[in-house]
């Protein structure tokens, strides 16, 4: 709630200066509130029915996990606002601060949601607000492209998630998360895959990771926030809250762990290849998210515990790293590992922040990252069998590379490259203080590991009760296998990293281009289809419509019963029928307009003769009248046109003839296929005609009596048509008319 | 009626009070013609004096007609009301306010009268709903040729609201384009009356006639802008293609009559319920033709081809009317004929509607994203919305019908708002409808830009707008009917369309306006229409419960008088 108030407050600020200061009040309040919930253990719920008929509700539930995540989201949010104040310096940033606040509020809603639809709504809200944040430098075309890419991937993922949730609610029978029991079966498998894919897109797992490095076009406060505590963690949180429901599905942990470990590996490789410090961090984030995904979906008590610990540790050190890089960026104007030089002396604060936060990321004691990573390694050790070995190998290799890219980043960024040291702008407290605080927190968290355990364990236990027995260990002891693996990782990684710091291969964005190309191709395709289908020519529209309608007849071609058909009842019918057909063909071939109109009249006369032969003189009479009026109308109307039809090309003419023949054939087929089902109404009509209608001409009785309302309706239609014609002619004379017609219209008049 | 073989001819029950919502529109149109021909001799200044009077009369007419509607006692409300001094005073104040407001909006006489007729019809609809439908349920009109059920009442209400809002938009537009006069309003009222009859029709012939009344008026409205050749082209194309599709519809009616022996929807439904046709080829062909004809009216692919051309060419407020009222009436007919009447043959028509829906969704969304003209974009997007509504029709269930209604109501206000903004921005001759003309609108006219943003977000289905709830309801109905693929297709195309709306929004906020861009004047009446649409869009988005209840109560039923 406080966030909503905050957004309004920031937007309504008269003076742009204190935007960030006002904005940070909201997360401060929610952080304080959530912190007070941390150790309490009680659960707060709130529910607001929205649309009862559709079972849509806003439902929240703040337990230990919700409180822990809220502390991260809001706590780091506060620091981000402080940092943002320093990063941007002056300028009107009200809109930006408000969007950031809206984003942070959406994230809180997401982690507190107790209803899948609430969760989905806030999930989408984070996508949209993050799109606005990433696209903030809106004049910059790379920022817009990156924002578009991020939105495409995350929104598409959101839809996959929606599909998954629809299926899940169908299986589970409820939309409330806390009421869902474990589900299994085919439908649950489908739901599991869809939900996992949704989570992968948000948490930048292979192959959906492409949007994340691109999103680095955003201002650093955004990157620091989105890629440490929020946005990307949404997927991890989703996997976590779905664990009690879908964890029992076979494919769940297999798919999650495989994709997670592959992402961890590929992300680390990416981090080693780039020379832009921020991109290195972005790829590092992809890699870390891979580890968290793997742990969260592995699903054993220890693994879930490790995942939650990693979420906490990562939020703290990654935010610090981004902030430090951002500070370097604004003070030197560059983030290039190859060109920056002499920063160790000129920017000591940033240096030490990077060192501490980097060590935490590498998992070196005495920093919070160490016990978290220990937990992950132990969780992998606990897995048995070949898959267990594979998981251990994956985690180990990934961690070695993590140490390597961290080492490389710190060494390359702060080494002296020879030549002049890079020029550095004056120091800004607001930009530096939050990162210092966070890097110190890394140490404090290690020292106070038992307290951190008290927060993490109940949170993990809400997802998996078996997590309750574990703790973050400051010093696992020399006889622990995990410890030695851990030390080996650090040593190996440091060597590789130091070597890599000297070489930088040119970066290349593999994959990201494919997404952009996909978008471009789609646009091209759409353009091509539009060009083909929507050409503006009236006759072609008519042809398409006639063809489509003719297709409707195909289904009952099979039911034509040839035995029931006979050629004619009386020979005269054959003669009349031939006349009608001949006149119809004449209409199509005669070049003279008036001749065609007369031929059309012959068709009508022939039909009325057929009626007569059939024994319906009143119907025939009516038809005759109508035909006469139409022919007269044609003769009057044709006065303004040339006497001859314009010539048509052979192809176009053939197409039109073909369509006409096809439509005729379709109608014939439809009639042939249908046998008479119901007795004719004729007898009944004749019976009432004299008694009720008082007339002998059946058609007249129908028009004036039996269906008089319809006749009234016809009159209304005529009145409207007359008024329309009147209005048009009046509008035409009022303006002198004479406006040139476009080509299409002329074509249409042929 | 054919069944009435008694020698004493039964007199059909007209039920005037239930007919009032429709009657108000139709008779109102005639009165408007009459009034204008009488007023013609008066100078314009004198005519303007009449505007506040019309405003006051509007309040009284709403009260009297609304009170009468649904009850058999004429003027009952009048007697009771006049006896109560507090009420009487309140009424007087309202009358005064109505007069002042009409004056404040600077409405022309024609627009003021049209608004009056629309509001009165709305009040009558409300009266029938609360005084009769909620108490007694559905009932027949005019010897059961029409039926007043919740469904037809909601659609009639939608059409009446559309008439009011479009009249507000038209007022300044006609003045600006030098087209001032009553013609457009008269045609719109006739068209609206036709639409209301269409939504209530219990007989295929009545339905056809209503559709013709609706369509012919709209053909002319599309062509009314004589100085724009695009407008004439639009009118001609719409007319020729529309006549073609009407022929299909009529043929479908004939075939259905041949198969079932009646054009009365009640008789058809009963017949199909009690009989299994051995040879149903005729009925199938009839249903196919009916689907083609109605598919054209709602702009379902592949019968959509006219939409972009006509929407782009026709005067913008007329487009707002076509996309709202005409489309709502078309879907009303579709639901009445297929979901309700052919309920027992749902297995036969569902696959066809399924295919139409997917095609419509794909065509509407994919072809929209490459357009450069905002009006044309919205034309395509209206096609994709039609696809969404078809998803609800396809479900062939009560959930499906109420989701269709919800969508129709929500979309009506959305689309009138969207085209309303475009109409103001495009300037004289409707020239400025391309994306370039929207560049930098946020700095030139922040309020307009914000309004259009909300409408577009709602069209995209962003939560907290009516558009989201509408899409959710439709997709929910599809999932309930186990049409999973259709639901997924709808969601995928929704993403594609989201890009289209995003493009418009981006150009409004990020584009740079040219220095010589004309200043945009926002007339009061059009501004009011946009505000109303905005409030309803956001309101139904935040608190959709009420509308959802109404649409759930409004399932169409076919009833025959006992």
Name its key features.
heterodimer, A: 750 residues, mainly alpha, Four Helix Bundle (Hemerythrin (Met), subunit A), two-stranded antiparallel ribbon, 31 helices, B: 562 residues, two-stranded antiparallel sheet, 2 strands, 1% strand
Please report the distance between the alpha carbons of the first and last residues of chain B: 13 Å
| Beta-strand segment tally of chain A | 2
Q: Please report which band the strand proportion of chain A falls in: under 5%, 5-15%, 15-25%, 25-35%, 35-45% or over 45%.
A: under 5%
Q: What's the tally of helices of chain B?
A: 23
> Assembly state here?
heterodimer
Structural class of chain B: mainly alpha
Q: Which structural class matches the secondary elements of chain A? A: mainly alpha
Q: In one word, what is the shape of chain A? A: elongated
Average pLDDT reading of chain B: 86
Q: Most extensive interface, residues per chain?
A: A-B, 92 and 106 residues
Instruction: State the strand order across the main sheet of chain A.
Output: 1-2
Q: Rg of chain B from C-alpha positions?
A: 23 Å
Biggest sheet descriptor of chain B: 2 strands, antiparallel
Average pLDDT value of chain A?
80
Strand order of the largest sheet of chain B: 1-2
- Rg of chain A: 38 Å
The amount of helix of chain B comes to over 70%
Task: Give the low-pLDDT segments of chain B.
Answer: 1-7
Largest sheet of chain A: 2 strands, antiparallel
Specify the helix fraction band of chain A.
Answer: over 70%
Question: Based on DSSP secondary structure assignment, what is the total number of beta strands of chain B?
Answer: 2
């Amino acid at each position: 709630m406080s966030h909503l108030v905050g957004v309004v407050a920031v937007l309504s600020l008269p003076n742009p200066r204190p935007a960030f200061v006002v904005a940070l009040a909201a997360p401060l309040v929610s952080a304080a509130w959530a912190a007070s919930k941390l150790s309490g253990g009680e659960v707060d719920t709130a529910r607001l029915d929205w649309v009862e008929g559709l079972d849509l509700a806003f439902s929240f539930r703040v337990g230990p996990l919700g409180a822990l995540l809220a502390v991260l989201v809001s706590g780091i949010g506060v620091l981000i606002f402080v940092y943002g104040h320093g990063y941007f310096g002056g300028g009107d940033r009200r809109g930006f601060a408000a969007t950031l606040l809206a984003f942070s509020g959406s994230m809180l809603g997401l982690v507190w949601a107790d209803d899948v639809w609430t969760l989905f709504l806030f999930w989408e809200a984070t996508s949209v607000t993050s799109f606005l944040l990433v696209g903030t430098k809106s004049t910059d075309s790379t920022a817009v492209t990156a924002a578009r890419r991020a939105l495409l991937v995350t929104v598409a993922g959101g839809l996959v998630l929606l599909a998954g949730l629809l299926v899940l609610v169908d299986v589970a029978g409820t939309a409330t998360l806390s009421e869902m029991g474990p589900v299994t079966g085919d439908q649950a498998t489908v739901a599991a895959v869809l939900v996992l894919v949704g989570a992968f897109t948000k948490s930048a797992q292979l192959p959906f990771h492409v949007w994340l490095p691109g999103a680095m076009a955003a201002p650093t406060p955004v990157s620091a926030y989105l890629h440490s505590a929020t946005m990307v963690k949404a997927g991890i949180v989703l996997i976590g809250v779905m664990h009690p429901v879908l964890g029992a599905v076979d494919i769940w942990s297999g798919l999650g762990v495989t994709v997670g470990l592959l992402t961890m590996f590929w992300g680390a490789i990416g981090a080693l290849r780039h020379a832009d410090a921020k991109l290195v961090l972005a790829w590092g984030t992809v890699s870390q998210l891979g580890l968290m995904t793997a742990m969260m979906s592995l699903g054993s008590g220890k693994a879930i515990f490790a995942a939650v610990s990693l979420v906490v540790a990562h939020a703290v050190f990654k935010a610090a790293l981004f902030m430090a890089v951002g500070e370097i960026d604004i003070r030197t104007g560059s983030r290039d590992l190859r060109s920056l030089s002499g920063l160790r002396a000129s920017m000591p604060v940033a240096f030490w922040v990077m060192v501490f936060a980097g060590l935490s990321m590498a998992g070196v004691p005495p920093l919070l990252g160490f016990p978290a990573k220990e937990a992950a390694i132990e969780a992998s050790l606990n897995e048995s069998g070949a898959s267990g070995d594979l998981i251990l190998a994956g985690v180990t290799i990934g961690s070695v590379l993590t140490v390597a890219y961290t080492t490389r980043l710190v060494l390359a960024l702060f080494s002296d490259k020879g030549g002049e040291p890079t020029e550095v702008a004056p120091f800004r407290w607001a930009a530096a203080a939050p990162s210092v605080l966070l890097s110190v927190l890394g140490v404090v968290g290690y020292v106070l590991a038992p307290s951190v355990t008290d927060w993490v364990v109940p949170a993990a236990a809400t997802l998996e009760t078996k997590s309750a027995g574990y703790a973050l260990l400051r010093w696992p002891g020399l006889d622990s296998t995990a410890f030695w693996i851990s030390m080996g990782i650090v040593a190996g990684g440091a060597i590789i990293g130091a070597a890599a710091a000297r070489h930088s291969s040119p970066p290349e964005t593999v994959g990201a281009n494919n997404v952009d190309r996909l978008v471009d191709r789609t646009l091209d395709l759409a353009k091509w289809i539009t060009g083909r289908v929507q050409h503006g020519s009236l006759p072609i529209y008519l042809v398409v419509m006639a063809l489509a309608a003719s297709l409707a007849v195909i289904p009952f071609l099979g039911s034509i019963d040839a035995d029931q058909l006979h050629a004619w009842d009386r020979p005269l019918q054959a003669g009349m029928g031939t006349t009608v057909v001949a006149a119809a063909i004449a209409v199509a071939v005669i070049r003279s307009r008036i001749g065609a109109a007369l031929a059309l009249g012959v068709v009508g006369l022939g039909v009325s003769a057929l009626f007569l032969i059939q024994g319906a003189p009143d119907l025939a009479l009516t038809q005759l009248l109508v035909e006469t009026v139409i022919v007269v109308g044609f003769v009057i109307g044709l006065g303004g046109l040339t006497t001859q039809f314009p010539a048509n090309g052979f192809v176009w003419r053939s197409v039109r003839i073909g369509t006409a023949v096809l439509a005729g054939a379709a109608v014939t087929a439809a009639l042939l296929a249908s046998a008479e089902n119901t007795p004719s109404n004729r007898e009944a009509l004749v019976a009432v005609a004299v008694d009720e209608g008082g007339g002998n001409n059946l058609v007249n009785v129908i028009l004036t009596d039996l269906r008089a309302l319809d006749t009234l309706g016809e009159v209304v239609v005529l009145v409207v048509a007359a008024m329309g014609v009147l209005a048009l002619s009046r509008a035409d004379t009022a303006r002198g008319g004479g406006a040139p017609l476009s080509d299409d219209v002329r074509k249409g008049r042929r | 009626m054919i069944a009435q073989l008694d020698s004493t001819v039964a007199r059909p029950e007209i039920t005037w009070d239930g007919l009032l919502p429709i009657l108000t529109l139709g008779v109102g149109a005639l009165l408007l013609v009459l009034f204008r021909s009488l007023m013609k001799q008066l100078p314009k200044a004198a005519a303007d004096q009449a505007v506040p009077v019309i405003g006051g009369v509007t309040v009284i007419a709403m009260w009297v007609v609304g009170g009468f509607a649904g009850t058999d006692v004429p003027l009952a409300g009048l007697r009771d009301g006049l006896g109560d001094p507090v009420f009487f005073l309140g009424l007087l104040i309202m009358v005064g306010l109505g007069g002042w407001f009409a004056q404040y909006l600077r409405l022309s006489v024609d627009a003021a009268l049209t608004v009056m007729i629309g509001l009165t019809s709305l009040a009558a609809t409300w009266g029938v709903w609360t005084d009769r439908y909620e108490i007694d349920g559905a009932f027949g009109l005019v010897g059961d040729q029409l039926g007043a059920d919740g469904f037809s009442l909601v659609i009639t209400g939608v059409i009446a609201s559309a008439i009011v809002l479009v009249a507000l938009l038209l007022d300044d537009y006609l003045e600006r384009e030098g087209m001032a006069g009553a013609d457009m309003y008269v045609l719109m009222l006739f068209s609206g009356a036709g639409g209301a009859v269409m939504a209530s029709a219990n007989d295929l012939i009545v339905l056809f006639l209503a559709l013709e009344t609706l369509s012919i008026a709209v053909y002319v409205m599309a062509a009314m802008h004589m100085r724009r050749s695009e407008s004439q082209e639009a009118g001609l194309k719409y007319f020729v293609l529309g006549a073609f599709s009407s022929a299909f519809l009529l043929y479908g009616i004939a075939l259905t009559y041949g198969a079932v022996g009646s054009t009365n929807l009640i008789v058809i439904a009963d017949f199909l319920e009690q009989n299994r046709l051995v040879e149903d080829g005729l009925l199938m062909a009839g249903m196919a033709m009916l689907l083609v004809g109605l598919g054209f009216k709602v702009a379902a692919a592949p019968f959509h081809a006219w939409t972009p051309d006509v929407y782009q060419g026709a005067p913008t407020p007329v487009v707002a009317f076509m996309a709202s009222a005409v489309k709502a009436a078309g879907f009303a007919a579709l639901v009445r004929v297929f979901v309700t009447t052919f309920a027992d043959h749902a297995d036969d028509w569902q696959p066809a509607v399924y295919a139409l829906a997917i095609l419509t969704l794909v065509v509407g969304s994919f072809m929209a994203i490459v357009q450069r003209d905002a009006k044309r974009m919205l034309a395509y997007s209206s096609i994709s919305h039609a696809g969404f509504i078809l998803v609800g029709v396809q479900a062939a269930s009560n959930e499906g019908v109420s989701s269709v209604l919800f969508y129709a109501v929500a979309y009506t206000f959305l689309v009138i708002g969207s085209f309303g903004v475009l109409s103001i921005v495009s300037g004289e001759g409707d020239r400025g409808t391309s994306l370039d003309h929207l560049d930098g609108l946020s700095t030139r006219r922040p309020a307009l830009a914000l309004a259009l943003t909300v409408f577009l977000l709602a069209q995209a289905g962003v939560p907290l707008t009516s558009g989201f709830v509408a899409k959710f309801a439709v997709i929910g109905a599809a999932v309930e009917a186990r049409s999973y693929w259709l639901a997924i297709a709808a969601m995928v195309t929704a993403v594609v369309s989201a890009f289209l709306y995003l493009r418009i929004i981006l150009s409004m906020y990020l584009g740079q306006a040219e220095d010589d861009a004309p200043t945009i004047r926002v007339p009061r009446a059009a501004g009011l229409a946009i505000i109303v649409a905005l409030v309803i869009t956001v309101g139904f988005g935040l608190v959709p419960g009420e509308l959802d209840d109404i649409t759930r109560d409004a399932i169409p039923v076919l009833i025959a008088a006992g």
